[in-house]
Amino acid sequence: MLICMATFEHLPVRVGGLAEAVTSLGEALGKKEDVIIFMPAHGLLQKEEGDLPLPVQKYCDFRIYVGERIYPVSVYCTERKGTRLFLLSNEVLDFPQVYAPRDMFLQKMVHFSKAVPGLINIMLKKEQRKPDVIHINDWHCVFAGSLAKKYFKIPFVFTIHRLCHERISVQELNEVNLSELVDSRYLEGDMFNIEKFGAHVCDFLTTVSYSYLNEEWRTFFSTFEGKTTYVWNGADHEFWNPESLKHAHMPRKERRKLLLEENGLEDGVLFFNVGRLDAAQKGIDILLQAFEMIMRDEVSGGSEVKENLRLILLGSGDHFLENEARRLQHEYAQNMRAIISYLGREATREYYGAADFCLIPSNFEPFGLVQLEAMCMGCIPIGSRVGGINDTVLDLHDYPERGTGRLVPPRNAKALARAMVEMVQIALRDDAGMLEKMRREGREHVINKFNWDKAADRYILVYKNKATIKLPFVNYAEPY
Ligand code: NHF
Asked: With a 6 A CB cut-off, is 455 part of the ligand 1 pocket?
Protein backbone atom coordinates (compact mmCIF):
# COMPACT_ATOMS: atom_id res chain seq x y z
CA MET A 1 0.00 0.00 0.00
CA LEU A 2 1.03 3.59 -0.52
CA ILE A 3 -0.31 5.50 2.48
CA CYS A 4 -0.30 9.30 2.40
CA MET A 5 -0.85 11.04 5.70
CA ALA A 6 -1.54 14.77 6.00
CA THR A 7 -0.85 16.67 9.19
CA PHE A 8 0.07 20.09 10.54
CA GLU A 9 2.40 18.56 13.15
CA HIS A 10 5.17 16.01 12.76
CA LEU A 11 8.46 15.99 14.65
CA PRO A 12 10.46 18.22 14.79
CA VAL A 13 7.39 20.48 14.58
CA ARG A 14 5.55 19.94 17.84
CA VAL A 15 2.77 21.93 19.42
CA GLY A 16 0.95 19.13 21.23
CA GLY A 17 0.43 15.38 21.29
CA LEU A 18 -0.51 15.32 17.60
CA ALA A 19 3.17 15.53 16.56
CA GLU A 20 4.16 12.57 18.70
CA ALA A 21 1.15 10.54 17.55
CA VAL A 22 1.56 11.13 13.81
CA THR A 23 5.33 10.66 13.87
CA SER A 24 5.18 7.39 15.78
CA LEU A 25 2.27 6.07 13.76
CA GLY A 26 4.06 6.92 10.51
CA GLU A 27 7.14 5.03 11.66
CA ALA A 28 5.10 1.97 12.69
CA LEU A 29 3.18 1.96 9.41
CA GLY A 30 6.45 2.45 7.56
CA LYS A 31 7.66 -0.96 8.79
CA LYS A 32 4.82 -2.59 6.84
CA GLU A 33 3.82 -0.25 4.01
CA ASP A 34 5.07 2.73 2.01
CA VAL A 35 4.31 5.91 3.87
CA ILE A 36 4.53 9.53 2.77
CA ILE A 37 3.64 12.33 5.16
CA PHE A 38 2.54 15.75 3.87
CA MET A 39 3.06 18.77 6.11
CA PRO A 40 3.41 22.54 5.58
CA ALA A 41 7.13 23.36 5.87
CA HIS A 42 6.38 25.78 8.78
CA GLY A 43 9.74 27.52 8.19
CA LEU A 44 11.77 24.37 8.84
CA LEU A 45 13.69 24.75 5.59
CA GLN A 46 14.86 28.21 6.54
CA LYS A 47 16.22 27.15 9.94
CA GLU A 48 19.99 27.19 9.99
CA GLU A 49 20.57 24.24 12.24
CA GLY A 50 17.26 22.55 11.82
CA ASP A 51 16.64 19.23 13.47
CA LEU A 52 15.45 17.86 10.16
CA PRO A 53 16.93 14.56 9.08
CA LEU A 54 19.23 15.21 6.14
CA PRO A 55 19.53 15.29 3.19
CA VAL A 56 16.52 17.35 2.19
CA GLN A 57 15.87 17.01 -1.52
CA LYS A 58 13.65 19.00 -3.86
CA TYR A 59 10.80 16.76 -5.04
CA CYS A 60 8.85 19.07 -7.35
CA ASP A 61 7.55 22.56 -8.10
CA PHE A 62 4.09 23.57 -9.22
CA ARG A 63 1.57 26.38 -8.86
CA ILE A 64 -1.71 26.85 -7.07
CA TYR A 65 -4.48 29.35 -7.55
CA VAL A 66 -5.74 31.12 -4.41
CA GLY A 67 -8.17 34.04 -4.62
CA GLU A 68 -6.90 36.33 -7.33
CA ARG A 69 -3.32 35.11 -7.28
CA ILE A 70 -1.17 32.29 -8.51
CA TYR A 71 1.39 31.06 -5.97
CA PRO A 72 4.38 28.80 -6.56
CA VAL A 73 4.74 25.74 -4.31
CA SER A 74 7.91 23.69 -3.86
CA VAL A 75 7.94 20.32 -2.18
CA TYR A 76 11.01 19.03 -0.35
CA CYS A 77 11.49 15.48 0.77
CA THR A 78 13.41 14.01 3.66
CA GLU A 79 13.48 10.46 5.01
CA ARG A 80 12.99 9.46 8.58
CA LYS A 81 12.87 5.92 9.96
CA GLY A 82 11.23 4.32 6.95
CA THR A 83 8.87 7.16 6.07
CA ARG A 84 9.18 10.03 3.64
CA LEU A 85 8.28 13.46 4.97
CA PHE A 86 7.17 15.89 2.23
CA LEU A 87 7.43 19.52 3.27
CA LEU A 88 5.20 21.83 1.25
CA SER A 89 6.73 25.24 0.96
CA ASN A 90 5.84 28.71 -0.30
CA GLU A 91 5.58 32.16 1.23
CA VAL A 92 2.50 31.16 3.24
CA LEU A 93 3.30 27.53 4.05
CA ASP A 94 6.72 28.60 5.36
CA PHE A 95 5.25 30.78 8.11
CA PRO A 96 6.94 29.43 11.26
CA GLN A 97 4.04 29.55 13.73
CA VAL A 98 1.85 26.51 13.25
CA TYR A 99 -1.60 27.69 14.31
CA ALA A 100 -1.25 31.42 14.95
CA PRO A 101 -2.22 34.10 14.19
CA ARG A 102 -5.56 32.78 13.09
CA ASP A 103 -5.82 34.55 9.73
CA MET A 104 -2.34 33.37 8.78
CA PHE A 105 -3.17 29.86 9.90
CA LEU A 106 -6.36 29.83 7.80
CA GLN A 107 -4.38 30.99 4.78
CA LYS A 108 -1.92 28.19 5.42
CA MET A 109 -4.76 25.71 5.58
CA VAL A 110 -6.10 26.94 2.24
CA HIS A 111 -2.68 26.79 0.55
CA PHE A 112 -2.10 23.31 1.95
CA SER A 113 -5.53 22.14 0.77
CA LYS A 114 -4.76 23.25 -2.76
CA ALA A 115 -1.15 22.12 -2.76
CA VAL A 116 -1.92 18.53 -1.74
CA PRO A 117 -3.92 17.68 -4.90
CA GLY A 118 -1.27 19.50 -6.96
CA LEU A 119 1.41 17.34 -5.37
CA ILE A 120 -0.57 14.12 -5.84
CA ASN A 121 -0.93 14.98 -9.50
CA ILE A 122 2.85 15.05 -9.83
CA MET A 123 3.29 11.96 -7.64
CA LEU A 124 1.15 9.95 -10.05
CA LYS A 125 3.95 10.32 -12.58
CA LYS A 126 6.96 10.28 -10.29
CA GLU A 127 5.86 7.39 -8.09
CA GLN A 128 4.15 5.60 -10.95
CA ARG A 129 1.24 4.76 -8.71
CA LYS A 130 -1.69 6.30 -6.97
CA PRO A 131 -1.86 6.54 -3.16
CA ASP A 132 -4.17 3.85 -1.77
CA VAL A 133 -5.42 6.09 0.97
CA ILE A 134 -5.08 9.62 2.24
CA HIS A 135 -5.13 9.72 6.03
CA ILE A 136 -6.12 13.14 7.34
CA ASN A 137 -5.20 14.13 10.88
CA ASP A 138 -7.51 16.73 12.43
CA TRP A 139 -9.66 19.33 10.75
CA HIS A 140 -6.83 21.47 9.35
CA CYS A 141 -6.26 18.90 6.62
CA VAL A 142 -9.89 18.03 5.84
CA PHE A 143 -10.08 20.13 2.66
CA ALA A 144 -6.87 18.52 1.39
CA GLY A 145 -8.41 15.07 1.94
CA SER A 146 -11.72 15.94 0.36
CA LEU A 147 -10.06 17.41 -2.74
CA ALA A 148 -7.76 14.38 -3.09
CA LYS A 149 -10.85 12.20 -2.92
CA LYS A 150 -12.79 14.34 -5.37
CA TYR A 151 -10.10 14.70 -8.02
CA PHE A 152 -8.27 11.38 -7.73
CA LYS A 153 -10.82 9.06 -6.11
CA ILE A 154 -8.41 8.30 -3.30
CA PRO A 155 -10.13 6.83 -0.22
CA PHE A 156 -10.10 9.36 2.59
CA VAL A 157 -9.68 8.38 6.26
CA PHE A 158 -10.27 11.13 8.79
CA THR A 159 -8.85 10.87 12.32
CA ILE A 160 -10.08 13.29 14.95
CA HIS A 161 -7.41 13.67 17.62
CA ARG A 162 -9.55 16.26 19.37
CA LEU A 163 -12.89 17.71 18.33
CA CYS A 164 -12.60 21.44 17.82
CA HIS A 165 -16.00 22.24 16.25
CA GLU A 166 -14.18 24.56 13.91
CA ARG A 167 -16.14 26.74 11.51
CA ILE A 168 -15.22 28.98 8.61
CA SER A 169 -17.49 31.50 6.89
CA VAL A 170 -18.90 30.79 3.45
CA GLN A 171 -17.56 34.14 2.34
CA GLU A 172 -14.02 33.09 3.31
CA LEU A 173 -14.40 29.89 1.29
CA ASN A 174 -15.61 31.90 -1.70
CA GLU A 175 -12.66 34.27 -1.46
CA VAL A 176 -10.17 31.43 -1.73
CA ASN A 177 -12.08 29.63 -4.48
CA LEU A 178 -13.08 26.69 -2.31
CA SER A 179 -16.81 27.28 -2.73
CA GLU A 180 -17.02 24.02 -4.66
CA LEU A 181 -17.03 22.41 -1.19
CA VAL A 182 -19.97 24.36 0.17
CA ASP A 183 -22.95 22.14 0.75
CA SER A 184 -25.96 23.19 2.82
CA ARG A 185 -25.73 20.03 4.95
CA TYR A 186 -22.64 21.38 6.74
CA LEU A 187 -23.85 24.94 7.13
CA GLU A 188 -24.65 26.43 10.52
CA GLY A 189 -26.04 29.85 9.62
CA ASP A 190 -23.48 31.15 7.16
CA MET A 191 -20.70 29.18 8.82
CA PHE A 192 -19.33 25.97 7.43
CA ASN A 193 -18.52 23.23 9.97
CA ILE A 194 -15.26 21.71 8.78
CA GLU A 195 -15.24 18.63 11.03
CA LYS A 196 -18.82 17.71 10.11
CA PHE A 197 -17.99 18.16 6.46
CA GLY A 198 -14.89 15.97 6.80
CA ALA A 199 -16.83 13.32 8.71
CA HIS A 200 -19.49 13.24 5.99
CA VAL A 201 -17.20 13.03 3.00
CA CYS A 202 -14.57 10.69 4.44
CA ASP A 203 -14.75 6.96 3.84
CA PHE A 204 -13.82 6.10 7.40
CA LEU A 205 -13.85 8.25 10.53
CA THR A 206 -11.73 7.42 13.55
CA THR A 207 -10.86 8.90 16.88
CA VAL A 208 -8.17 7.98 19.34
CA SER A 209 -9.96 6.18 22.17
CA TYR A 210 -13.04 4.16 22.92
CA SER A 211 -14.08 6.34 25.83
CA TYR A 212 -13.73 9.57 23.84
CA LEU A 213 -15.84 8.08 21.06
CA ASN A 214 -18.41 7.18 23.69
CA GLU A 215 -18.27 10.60 25.41
CA GLU A 216 -18.76 12.42 22.10
CA TRP A 217 -21.12 9.84 20.58
CA ARG A 218 -24.34 11.80 20.93
CA THR A 219 -22.79 15.19 20.21
CA PHE A 220 -20.96 14.14 17.07
CA PHE A 221 -19.97 10.60 16.16
CA SER A 222 -23.34 8.81 16.16
CA THR A 223 -24.28 10.61 12.93
CA PHE A 224 -21.52 8.67 11.25
CA GLU A 225 -22.27 5.27 12.75
CA GLY A 226 -21.29 2.51 10.37
CA LYS A 227 -18.07 4.14 9.24
CA THR A 228 -16.74 5.25 12.60
CA THR A 229 -14.38 3.56 15.01
CA TYR A 230 -11.47 4.19 17.37
CA VAL A 231 -7.79 3.36 17.18
CA TRP A 232 -5.74 3.80 20.31
CA ASN A 233 -2.45 5.61 20.15
CA GLY A 234 0.62 3.92 21.52
CA ALA A 235 3.80 4.83 23.35
CA ASP A 236 7.37 4.53 22.21
CA HIS A 237 8.34 2.18 25.06
CA GLU A 238 11.88 1.85 23.77
CA PHE A 239 12.47 5.53 24.34
CA TRP A 240 10.36 5.72 27.49
CA ASN A 241 12.41 3.11 29.23
CA PRO A 242 13.89 3.32 32.75
CA GLU A 243 17.00 1.55 31.40
CA SER A 244 17.84 4.74 29.48
CA LEU A 245 17.95 6.99 32.53
CA LYS A 246 21.14 8.74 33.59
CA HIS A 247 21.12 6.78 36.84
CA ALA A 248 19.40 3.69 35.51
CA HIS A 249 20.98 1.35 38.01
CA MET A 250 20.25 3.42 41.09
CA PRO A 251 17.19 2.46 43.18
CA ARG A 252 14.22 4.63 42.21
CA LYS A 253 14.12 6.28 45.64
CA GLU A 254 17.73 7.41 45.25
CA ARG A 255 16.98 8.94 41.85
CA ARG A 256 14.04 10.76 43.39
CA LYS A 257 16.18 12.11 46.20
CA LEU A 258 18.76 13.39 43.73
CA LEU A 259 16.20 15.03 41.47
CA LEU A 260 14.46 16.70 44.39
CA GLU A 261 17.80 17.94 45.64
CA GLU A 262 18.54 19.43 42.20
CA ASN A 263 15.27 21.29 42.55
CA GLY A 264 16.08 22.52 46.04
CA LEU A 265 13.65 20.19 47.82
CA GLU A 266 14.14 17.59 50.50
CA ASP A 267 13.21 14.00 49.80
CA GLY A 268 9.51 13.12 49.94
CA VAL A 269 6.72 11.45 47.97
CA LEU A 270 6.91 13.08 44.57
CA PHE A 271 3.96 13.97 42.32
CA PHE A 272 4.74 15.22 38.86
CA ASN A 273 2.80 16.89 36.10
CA VAL A 274 4.09 17.63 32.64
CA GLY A 275 2.48 19.49 29.77
CA ARG A 276 0.52 22.55 28.84
CA LEU A 277 -0.67 24.60 31.80
CA ASP A 278 -4.26 24.90 30.71
CA ALA A 279 -7.58 24.79 32.51
CA ALA A 280 -10.06 24.02 29.73
CA GLN A 281 -8.67 20.61 28.74
CA LYS A 282 -5.79 19.75 31.05
CA GLY A 283 -7.50 20.76 34.31
CA ILE A 284 -4.36 22.29 35.84
CA ASP A 285 -6.53 24.60 37.95
CA ILE A 286 -8.02 21.46 39.54
CA LEU A 287 -4.54 20.11 40.27
CA LEU A 288 -3.46 23.35 41.96
CA GLN A 289 -6.66 23.44 44.00
CA ALA A 290 -6.19 19.82 45.09
CA PHE A 291 -2.63 20.53 46.21
CA GLU A 292 -3.74 23.58 48.16
CA MET A 293 -6.63 21.69 49.76
CA ILE A 294 -4.18 19.18 51.17
CA MET A 295 -1.77 21.83 52.35
CA ARG A 296 -4.60 23.76 54.03
CA ASP A 297 -6.03 20.65 55.68
CA GLU A 298 -9.27 20.97 53.71
CA VAL A 299 -8.78 17.34 52.77
CA SER A 300 -7.42 15.59 55.77
CA GLY A 301 -4.13 13.89 55.31
CA GLY A 302 -2.56 14.95 58.56
CA SER A 303 0.83 16.46 59.15
CA GLU A 304 2.69 13.36 57.99
CA VAL A 305 1.18 13.64 54.51
CA LYS A 306 1.81 17.38 54.31
CA GLU A 307 5.41 17.05 55.43
CA ASN A 308 6.13 14.37 52.87
CA LEU A 309 4.23 15.69 49.88
CA ARG A 310 6.30 17.04 46.98
CA LEU A 311 4.94 18.42 43.72
CA ILE A 312 6.82 19.40 40.57
CA LEU A 313 5.06 21.02 37.63
CA LEU A 314 6.84 21.08 34.31
CA GLY A 315 5.34 23.09 31.46
CA SER A 316 4.03 26.47 30.47
CA GLY A 317 0.84 27.94 29.06
CA ASP A 318 -1.93 30.01 30.55
CA HIS A 319 -0.39 33.04 32.31
CA PHE A 320 -2.94 32.98 35.10
CA LEU A 321 -2.04 29.35 35.90
CA GLU A 322 1.67 30.06 35.62
CA ASN A 323 1.28 32.81 38.22
CA GLU A 324 -0.90 30.65 40.41
CA ALA A 325 1.78 27.95 40.31
CA ARG A 326 4.43 30.54 41.25
CA ARG A 327 2.27 31.76 44.11
CA LEU A 328 1.91 28.22 45.49
CA GLN A 329 5.62 27.59 45.08
CA HIS A 330 6.28 30.71 47.11
CA GLU A 331 3.75 29.78 49.79
CA TYR A 332 4.76 26.12 50.06
CA ALA A 333 8.45 26.40 49.34
CA GLN A 334 9.26 23.11 51.10
CA ASN A 335 6.78 21.17 48.98
CA MET A 336 6.51 22.52 45.49
CA ARG A 337 8.43 23.61 42.40
CA ALA A 338 7.00 25.05 39.21
CA ILE A 339 9.37 24.77 36.25
CA ILE A 340 7.68 27.05 33.76
CA SER A 341 9.23 25.70 30.58
CA TYR A 342 9.65 22.58 28.46
CA LEU A 343 12.76 20.56 29.00
CA GLY A 344 12.86 18.28 25.97
CA ARG A 345 12.20 14.55 25.84
CA GLU A 346 15.39 13.26 27.48
CA ALA A 347 15.22 15.61 30.46
CA THR A 348 11.50 14.96 30.91
CA ARG A 349 12.25 11.25 31.01
CA GLU A 350 14.45 11.83 34.08
CA TYR A 351 11.45 13.30 35.90
CA TYR A 352 9.18 10.39 35.00
CA GLY A 353 11.95 8.04 36.10
CA ALA A 354 12.24 9.61 39.55
CA ALA A 355 8.72 10.74 40.48
CA ASP A 356 6.39 8.39 42.32
CA PHE A 357 3.15 9.57 40.73
CA CYS A 358 2.10 11.46 37.64
CA LEU A 359 -0.97 13.70 37.86
CA ILE A 360 -3.22 13.97 34.78
CA PRO A 361 -6.34 15.84 35.90
CA SER A 362 -7.79 16.46 32.40
CA ASN A 363 -11.40 17.54 32.01
CA PHE A 364 -11.49 15.63 28.76
CA GLU A 365 -8.71 13.76 26.98
CA PRO A 366 -9.18 12.14 23.58
CA PHE A 367 -6.17 9.94 24.27
CA GLY A 368 -3.45 11.66 26.32
CA LEU A 369 0.02 10.27 25.85
CA VAL A 370 1.34 11.33 29.26
CA GLN A 371 -0.25 8.45 31.17
CA LEU A 372 1.39 5.95 28.80
CA GLU A 373 4.80 7.60 29.03
CA ALA A 374 4.45 7.66 32.81
CA MET A 375 3.48 3.97 33.00
CA CYS A 376 6.39 3.04 30.74
CA MET A 377 8.69 4.82 33.18
CA GLY A 378 7.22 3.31 36.35
CA CYS A 379 5.62 6.60 37.38
CA ILE A 380 2.13 5.71 38.61
CA PRO A 381 -0.62 7.79 36.95
CA ILE A 382 -3.41 9.42 38.92
CA GLY A 383 -5.75 10.75 36.29
CA SER A 384 -9.31 11.67 35.44
CA ARG A 385 -11.67 8.90 34.42
CA VAL A 386 -12.10 10.29 30.90
CA GLY A 387 -11.17 9.44 27.32
CA GLY A 388 -7.90 7.68 26.72
CA ILE A 389 -6.91 7.90 30.40
CA ASN A 390 -9.93 5.74 31.25
CA ASP A 391 -9.04 3.26 28.51
CA THR A 392 -5.41 2.86 29.43
CA VAL A 393 -5.10 3.13 33.21
CA LEU A 394 -6.38 0.25 35.34
CA ASP A 395 -7.67 1.76 38.56
CA LEU A 396 -6.30 0.13 41.69
CA HIS A 397 -9.75 -0.05 43.29
CA ASP A 398 -11.32 -1.69 40.22
CA TYR A 399 -8.36 -4.04 39.68
CA PRO A 400 -6.75 -4.68 43.09
CA GLU A 401 -4.51 -7.39 41.60
CA ARG A 402 -3.33 -5.64 38.47
CA GLY A 403 -4.03 -1.94 39.00
CA THR A 404 -1.67 0.43 37.19
CA GLY A 405 -2.87 3.73 38.66
CA ARG A 406 -5.80 5.64 40.11
CA LEU A 407 -8.77 7.11 38.28
CA VAL A 408 -10.81 9.95 39.75
CA PRO A 409 -13.84 11.87 38.47
CA PRO A 410 -12.90 14.88 36.30
CA ARG A 411 -13.35 18.49 37.47
CA ASN A 412 -13.28 17.42 41.11
CA ALA A 413 -10.38 18.83 43.13
CA LYS A 414 -11.52 17.13 46.31
CA ALA A 415 -11.55 13.67 44.74
CA LEU A 416 -8.08 14.29 43.29
CA ALA A 417 -6.79 15.52 46.65
CA ARG A 418 -8.18 12.42 48.38
CA ALA A 419 -6.51 10.12 45.86
CA MET A 420 -3.22 11.97 46.36
CA VAL A 421 -3.47 11.61 50.13
CA GLU A 422 -4.27 7.92 49.79
CA MET A 423 -1.25 7.40 47.56
CA VAL A 424 1.10 9.29 49.89
CA GLN A 425 -0.10 7.09 52.73
CA ILE A 426 0.47 3.94 50.66
CA ALA A 427 3.92 5.21 49.65
CA LEU A 428 4.88 5.88 53.26
CA ARG A 429 3.94 2.37 54.43
CA ASP A 430 4.87 0.52 51.25
CA ASP A 431 6.52 -2.47 52.87
CA ALA A 432 4.71 -5.06 50.73
CA GLY A 433 6.08 -3.55 47.51
CA MET A 434 2.58 -2.72 46.29
CA LEU A 435 3.74 0.35 44.38
CA GLU A 436 6.60 -1.59 42.82
CA LYS A 437 4.04 -4.09 41.55
CA MET A 438 1.90 -1.29 40.10
CA ARG A 439 4.94 0.12 38.33
CA ARG A 440 5.74 -3.25 36.77
CA GLU A 441 2.11 -3.87 35.79
CA GLY A 442 1.92 -0.40 34.22
CA ARG A 443 4.91 -0.87 31.94
CA GLU A 444 3.77 -4.37 30.92
CA HIS A 445 0.25 -3.11 30.22
CA VAL A 446 1.52 -0.42 27.85
CA ILE A 447 4.01 -2.65 26.08
CA ASN A 448 1.42 -5.38 25.48
CA LYS A 449 -1.67 -3.36 24.67
CA PHE A 450 -0.77 0.16 23.65
CA ASN A 451 2.09 -0.05 21.26
CA TRP A 452 2.34 1.67 17.88
CA ASP A 453 2.63 -1.61 15.97
CA LYS A 454 -0.84 -2.53 17.19
CA ALA A 455 -2.12 0.91 16.23
CA ALA A 456 -0.58 0.53 12.76
CA ASP A 457 -2.23 -2.88 12.29
CA ARG A 458 -5.59 -1.47 13.20
CA TYR A 459 -5.19 1.56 10.91
CA ILE A 460 -4.38 -0.84 8.08
CA LEU A 461 -7.72 -2.55 8.80
CA VAL A 462 -9.35 0.89 8.71
CA TYR A 463 -7.70 1.67 5.36
CA LYS A 464 -9.08 -1.61 4.05
CA ASN A 465 -12.47 -0.77 5.47
CA LYS A 466 -12.42 -3.74 7.83
CA ALA A 467 -12.24 -2.21 11.33
CA THR A 468 -15.26 -2.67 13.53
CA ILE A 469 -16.65 -1.18 16.69
CA LYS A 470 -18.74 -2.93 19.33
CA LEU A 471 -21.87 -1.08 20.41
CA PRO A 472 -23.45 -0.36 22.86
CA PHE A 473 -20.63 1.14 24.84
CA VAL A 474 -19.58 -0.44 28.11
CA ASN A 475 -17.36 1.06 30.78
CA TYR A 476 -14.16 -0.47 29.65
CA ALA A 477 -13.02 -1.48 26.18
CA GLU A 478 -11.33 -4.83 25.98
CA PRO A 479 -8.16 -4.35 23.97
CA TYR A 480 -8.63 -5.39 20.36
O1 NHF B 1 -3.32 12.20 22.77
C2 NHF B 1 -2.81 12.69 19.93
C3 NHF B 1 -3.37 13.71 20.92
C4 NHF B 1 -4.16 13.07 22.06
O5 NHF B 1 -5.52 13.58 23.98
C6 NHF B 1 -4.64 14.13 23.03
C7 NHF B 1 -5.20 15.33 22.35
C8 NHF B 1 -4.73 15.67 20.99
O9 NHF B 1 -5.95 16.10 22.94
O10 NHF B 1 -3.78 11.83 19.42
O11 NHF B 1 -4.20 14.58 20.22
From this structure: no
Q: Are 8 and 141 in contact (CB under 8 A)?
A: yes
259 and 378 share one domain: yes
Domain for residue 235, yes or no?
Answer: no
* SS3 assignment, position 114: helix
Ligand 1 center to 369 CA (angstroms): 7
Residue 161 alpha carbon to ligand 1 centre in Å: 5
- The answer to whether residue 236 sits within a structural domain is no
Number of domains in the chain: 2
pTM given for the model: 0.95
Q: Which residues pair with 270 in a beta bridge?
A: 310
The helix/strand/coil state of 399 is coil
Q: Are 171 and 119 in contact (CB under 8 A)?
A: no
16 ligand 1 Cβ < 6 A: yes
173-182 residue pLDDT tens: 988 888 888 8
For 389-443, write each residue's pLDDT tens digit: 999 999 999 999 999 999 999 999 999 999 999 999 999 998 779 999 999 999 9
pLDDT band at residue 467, thresholds of 50, 70 and 90? confident
